[in-house]
Structure formats: structure tokens, C-alpha cells
Design a protein that fits this description.
CATH topology of the largest domain: Rossmann fold
Protein name: UDP-glucose 6-dehydrogenase
Distance between the termini: 59 Å
Catalytic activity: UDP-alpha-D-glucose + 2 NAD(+) + H2O = UDP-alpha-D-glucuronate + 2 NADH + 3 H(+)
Number of helices: 18
Strand order of the largest sheet: 3-2-1-4-5-6
Bound molecules: nicotinamide-adenine-dinucleotide
Keywords: NAD, Oxidoreductase
Largest sheet: 6 strands, parallel
Radius of gyration: 24 Å
InterPro entries: 6-PGluconate_DH-like_C_sf, NAD(P)-bd_dom_sf, UDP-Glc/GDP-Man, UDP-Glc/GDP-Man_DH_C, UDP-Glc/GDP-Man_DH_C_sf, UDP-Glc/GDP-Man_DH_dimer, UDP-Glc/GDP-Man_DH_N, UDPglc_DH_bac
Shape: elongated
Family: Belongs to the UDP-glucose/GDP-mannose dehydrogenase family.
């Protein structure tokens, strides 16, 4: 099938590459000329396991192309995916300017029938606004062109995006219950048929329910995280181990083990903005989503917990003190620094006068870019970007772990102890066992694990 993907970011590039991998003829459009040039020169703008290989293979086979040519992109695809960003507006609602600009561009150039797919995460009712924008542009040209707008939210996880896209646990498709809507559904069914060979994974529904499903999923996941973080802080107070509690509750099939980890708070481009956007939608209907308000507030507080533990241990004035930080990306296997808890930790340590040496397996370049925006030149001068995890440790009072990269899970503790000034670890992701750390003579501060260390 001929497919156009509008927006070549995390979602758009993965969607385009994976659909090309299945034999479709894919045209990826972006407004960012640098990104398109990089892709056309064989580069990849993001770190995502397996993506580079898929893109290279399909480029070589002539099944995927990258361009900024809007007219050509509209002419290309019988199905046009909108996968542009929907960042938070000042009031927390989703900013739809990029989605609507993409829709208008389609309306300006389209002839004949097109299926427009909202793949971006968009508030309930957005498909109606996309339809209106398309119709506006078509009418302004005085031509007749028909279209259907379908909602097909994306559930991939950064860090496992290619795998998630190729083996989705569900495909949600919302379409209108009209002849045009059924025609669009038939095309979507054909496009997604390869994913449904083993068993049917598609949930067909109306457009508004599909739009809502994406927000409900992210809100539920964020709720689980904030719930566990709040209980972890209480566990620290009462001398319980949140990891033992996690196992104890996760074995109940009604609860399950997934997504129950206490840590340094959630970040990334999705949970923070989607929780806010759902709250904002509710407020438009005079409803206050009390749970989600609390989820957000707990998360904002949780991002401070690691830094507060450091300050409690080493004092409010950290000038003259140096710390090692492992992990900068908001989660492992990505270089995404959006809303990353590491940014809050660095702000706290630098505000208290410390110097830091930081390391992340893939996010160093992105961290340099983002921290140059977050920090003043004087603050930035107090950050050293280290060449390896061990390279961060020299002269550090303590090691602070913010992201749970696999490479950090079994380090050489003897080397760490020798390199650090004091054998102190603040583990924002509960990578290690307090008992093991005690045996190795480390002072260990986890999240909700004060049973042994009484921190
Ligand atoms: N990142 C994720 O893990 C994830 C997962 C599921 C859903 N989503 C949702 O998918 C959407 C895209 O997210 P992302 O992380 O891929 O964003 P991104 O910022 O990585 O990419 C968006 C791209 O769209 C381009 N763009 C903007 N306006 C354009 C236009 N008019 N025409 C062509 N290109 C345009 C930008 O230049 C950018 O390259 C968002 O709504 C997000 O909430 C993201």
C-alpha cells in the first residue's frame, strides 16, 4: 500500500520503517530539513534499538523515502498518517497546531479519496477538528475530494519501539459508522492484516473512544508509578522494603507485577503531558480528575526525592563536594531527555553548590544539548561529561543512579569503592539489594528500602 507519514519523529519514523518492512511503499515527510538530510544521508536522528537496520534495509530496497516536499507527500499516500508532536500548551492542554497544520497541508493538495489517520496522541474530539481543517482547505480550492479521518493511537514504548510496533499487544482503530468510515476501516484492516495473523489484535471502536483509550492507558500507567512512589516514601519512614511489598502485591493477578517500580519519578514526552492534557479536557467539562491531579503532584515531588536524600546526607551546602551521576535519559534504551528526572537532580545538586560528573550510555549528546538550555554557563562548567561510568567516580563523595540502564546493574563494586571518596550509593531505581550492599560495606540509599539502612 502507498503510505505517507507526516512527522518523522519517534513515532513517525518507527511507524514508517516498520510499515515499509512489511512491504508498503512509505513516504516520510518532515518540516525539519536537517532531520530529512540526516536520514537521506543514512543517519538516524534518534536512538532506538533495531531502528537503524530496519531503515537502512528498506531504504536500500526503495520502500522508504524521506522528504520535506508536502505536495509530493500528499500525492503519494492513499493513507496519510499524522504523527507530529502534541506538546503541552501553556495551560496543560495538548497543543494541536502541528496536527492541524498537517491536516491543512493535506487539504491544500489532495485530489481523490484519502484516509487520514490520527496517530499522534490527541484529545477527544480532535478528529472533528482535523475533518473541519481538511474540509476548509478543500472548499477554499473549490474542488471535490473525499476523505475519512480515523483514530489509530500509538502504544509503542521508547527504547523498545520497533519491537512494540512489530508485535503490538493491541491495535486500536476508531472510525465513523458511515459508508466513508467503513471504507477507511477496510483499508486499515488490510494495512494491519500482517499484525493479526497469529490472532486478532485490533479493537474496532468509534473515533472518540479510540482517542480516549490512549489517554486512559497512559494515565493508568502513570497512576501505578505515582502510587508506588508514594508508598515507597512511606516505606522509608516506617522501615519497610517497597521491593518486598511490590512482590507481595504483584502476585495478585488483579494487580500484576508490571509497572509497580518505585523510583525517581516518571519523565519522557508522554506521561507528563498526557496526564496534564486529560486533566485539562476534564476541566473543559467542569470535571476535576482528582486522582490524576494527585498523580502529577506526587510525580513532581518524587523527582526531588533523590536530591533530597543527597542533601540530607551531605548537607544543604554542597560547595566543594563532587558527585557521580549514572544515567541521564528519562529511561533506558533511549536518548530522550524530555522531562527526565536527571534534569531535576542536576538542578538540585548544582543549586546546592556541588560539581558533578555525569555519564549515560547513549544520551550524552542529547544531554549536552538540553543541559546547555537548562543551565547557566557557570552551572554548566560544574558538569563534567565523563567517558564511562567508572570515569565519573574519581573524587566523588557518592554515586547517584538515576536511570536503570542494564550496563549499571552488575558493576565492579570493588572498583567503585576504591574510586569514590566515600562508599555511598544513592540508587534512584532500586537496582541493587540493600543486604548485598551492606555486606559490601556500602552505605546504600534506595527508594523505599530503608529496612536495613534506616535512611
Ligand atoms: N514518543 C513516544 O514514545 C510516543 C508513543 C506513543 C505516542 N506518541 C505520540 O505521538 C506523537 C508524536 O510524538 P513523537 O515523540 O514522535 O514526537 P517527535 O517530536 O519526536 O516528532 C514529531 C515530528 O513531527 C515533525 N513535524 C511537526 N509539524 C510537522 C508538519 N506540519 N509536517 C511534517 N512534520 C512535522 C517535527 O519536525 C518532528 O520531527 C505525539 O502526539 C506523542 O504524544 C509518542
Amino acid at each position: 500500500m502507498k503510505i505517507t507519514i507526516i512527522g518523522t519523529g519517534y513515532v513517525g519514523l518507527v511507524t514508517g520503517a516498520c510499515l515499509a518492512e512489511l512491504g508498503n511503499d512509505v513516504f516520510c515527510l518532515d518540516v525539519d530539513q536537517k532531520k530529512i538530510d540526516l536520514l537521506n544521508n543514512g543517519g538516524i536522528p534518534i536512538h532506538e534499538p533495531g531502528l537503524e537496520e530496519v531503515v537502512a534495509r528498506n531504504r536500500a530496497a526503495g520502500r522508504i523515502q524521506f522528504s520535506t516536499d508536502v505536495a509530493a507527500s500528499v500525492a503519494h499516500g492513499e493513507v496519510q498518517f499524522i504523527a507530529v508532536g502534541t506538546p503541552p500548551d501553556e495551560d496543560g492542554s495538548a497543543d494541536l497546531q502541528y496536527v492541524l497544520a498537517a491536516a491543512r497541508n493535506i487539504g491544500k493538495h489532495m485530489t481523490g479519496y484519502k484516509v487520514i489517520v490520527d496517530k499522534s496522541t490527541v484529545p477527544v474530539g480532535t478528529a472533528d477538528r482535523v475533518k473541519a481543517a481538511l474540509q476548509d482547505e478543500i472548499s477554499a480550492r473549490g474542488v471535490t475530494a473525499t476523505f475519512s479521518v480515523v483514530s489509530n493511537p500509538e502504544f509503542l514504548k521508547e527504547g523498545a519501539a520497533v519491537e512494540d510496533f512489530m508485535r503490538p499487544d493491541r491495535i486500536v482503530i476508531g472510525h465513523d459508522n458511515t459508508a466513508e468510515g467503513e471504507k477507511a476501516a477496510a483499508k486499515m484492516k488490510k494495512l494491519y492484516a500482517p499484525f493479526n495473523r497469529n490472532h486478532e489484535r485490533t479493537f474496532w471502536m468509534d473515533v472518540r473512544s479510540a482517542e480516549f483509550t490512549k489517554y486512559a492507558a497512559n494515565a493508568m500507567l502513570a497512576t501505578r508509578i505515582s502510587f508506588m512512589n508514594e508508598l515507597a516514601n512511606l516505606a522509608d519512614q516506617v522501615g519497610a522494603d517497597i521491593e518486598a511489598v511490590r512482590h507481595g502485591i504483584g502476585s495478585d493477578p488483579r494487580i500484576g507485577h508490571s509497572f509497580l517500580y518505585a523510583g525517581a519519578g516518571y519523565g519522557g514526552s508522554c506521561f507528563p503531558k498526557d496526564v496534564q492534557a486529560l486533566e485539562r479536557t476534564a476541566r473543559q467539562y467542569s470535571q476535576d480528575l482528582l486522582i490524576l491531579r494527585a498523580v502529577e503532584a506526587v510525580n513532581d515531588k518524587q523527582k526531588l526525592v533523590l536530591g533530597q536524600k543527597v542533601i540530607k546526607r551531605f548537607g544543604a551546602d554542597l560547595s566543594g563536594k563532587h558527585f557521580a551521576v549514572w544515567g541521564l535519559a528519562f529511561k533506558p534504551n533511549t536518548d530522550d531527555m524530555r522531562e527526565a528526572p536527571s534534569r531535576v537532580l542536576l538542578r538540585q545538586l548544582l543549586d546546592a553548590g556541588a560539581t558533578v560528573a555525569v555519564y549515560d550510555p547513549v544520551a550524552m549528546a542529547e544531554a549536552k544539548r538540553v543541559l546547555a538550555l537548562d543551565l547557566t554557563p557557570e552551572e554548566l562548567a560544574r558538569v563534567r561529561f565523563a567517558a564511562s561510568p567508572m570515569d565519573t567516580l574519581t573524587d566523588a563523595e557518592a554515586l547517584v543512579i538515576v536511570t536503570e540502564w542494564k550496563a549499571f546493574r552488575s558493576p565492579d563494586f570493588d572498583k567503585i569503592k576504591t574510586a569514590l571518596k566515600q562508599a555511598v550509593i544513592f540508587d534512584g531505581r532500586n537496582l541493587f539489594e540493600p543486604e548485598v550492599m551492606a555486606e559490601a560495606a556500602f552505605e546504600y540509599h534506595g527508594i523505599g528500602r530503608s529496612i536495613l539502612t534506616r535512611t
